[in-house]
Design goal:
By secondary structure, this protein is mostly helical. The chain has three helices and no strands. The protein is 68% helix and 0% strand. It is elongated and about 40 Å long. The protein starts with a helix and ends in a 6-residue tail after the last helix.
Length: 72
């Protein structure tokens, strides 16, 4: 994942100083509360829609932190 992020940085798509750290952060964001709740058997297997919502929210935060600001 860090190598993929390195390439995105090289293309000017992301602004990240430490892509290994950013990769770990992204994985943590995506796993978030749902994985922990499943591991502890607090929740049932989530529906695909719930997983999609979690992933989209994680990506929103990640791109807010590392996305390149463009002016229209």
């Amino acid at each position: 994942l860090a190598e993929y992020l390195d390439k995105a940085v090289a293309r000017g798509e992301l602004k990240i100083d430490d892509t290994l750290l950013a990769a770990h952060q992204l994985i943590s964001l995506i796993h978030g509360r749902m994985i922990k709740a499943r591991l502890l058997n607090y929740i049932a297997v989530p529906a695909p829609e719930e997983i999609e919502t979690e992933v989209q929210a994680a990506l929103f935060v990640f791109f807010a932190a590392y996305g390149v600001q463009t002016t229209a």
